Amino acid sequence: MTRSSGPEPSFDLTGKVAVVTGGSRGLGKAMVRAFAQRGADVVIASRKLDACEQLATEIAEETGRRALGVRCHVGTWADCDQLVATAYDRFGQVDVLVNNAGMSPLYPSLAEVTEELFDKVQAVNLRGPFRLSSLIGTRMAAGNGGAIINVSSIAAVQPMPTEIPYGLAKAGLNALTIGLAHAFAPKVRVNGIMPGPFLTDISKAWDLEAFEQLAKTAIPLQRGGEAHEIVGAALYLASNASSYTTGAILKIDGGTVFAPA
To answer: Active-site residue numbers?
Structure first.
């Protein structure tokens, strides 16, 4: 007996507009490229305008899609408001928001974490996503709907001693994801991606030899992730392929967290 099935899931983003913070490098850059290749126009936001504009030019040449670079420090409320205004002024809509910008500065000890460092980490990793999601999500819910993707971290559930303020912020981001999934339902889907160690620009500061040795025992897949390996999850959550998925947090970490000791 043959069982009937519904339509195949589609990752097509033709006619959509995607805003990606921290979009000029690393995981954000990989997502921007993937969205444009599937038909979306893209807004690339980060603190470095030159890098955003350079990537926007490359995207337009490679894909023929419209691409706009915007300087935005997501830890600043006014910059978030301006990014939203610029995106809607230029494109008239936002269908996908990816809160990807993040930071986790080093500190010598917990007792030496300054108020300034603590507040800055919370601002970039949590306050900015709250503001952007609140503004864009409200407009999505009043219009044709959309998708919000929050890029968290496994530090949200298993922070190391060197990243506790960051882990606190990312735990808050996971909570925000679930809260917004309820707040903006049923027209807006809000989901999270929880990456583990990825070999992006930030890994240049690591002792890679030591990391590779650690990965052999601490990570079931025995390596760090590559930026392109975030793309499948991002396309799934941004597109209609995830039409019945909201309030989910997808762990992409090679099995690092919750792995047997």
So the answer is: 166
**pTM of the predicted protein model:** 0.92
CA of 136: how far to CAs of 82, 98, 178, in Å? 12, 11, 16
Q: Look up tokens 């762990």; give the residue.
A: 251
Q: Judge whether 55 and 63 are in contact, CB under 8 Å.
A: no
Pick the CATH number of 17-252 from 2.60.120.1130, 3.40.50.720, 3.40.50.1820, 1.10.10.10: 3.40.50.720
87-132, pLDDT tens digit by residue? 999 999 999 999 999 999 999 999 999 999 999 999 999 999 999 9
Could you state, in order of their start, the residue ranges of all structural domains in the chain?
17-252
CA atoms within 13 A on the CB side of 111: 0
Cβ–Cβ under 8 Å, residues 168 and 113:
no
| Integer angstrom CA distances of residue 243 from 46, 145, 166, 191, 247 | 29, 11, 31, 11, 12
Phi, psi at 45, each rounded to 5°: -120, 135
DSSP summary character for residue 29: H
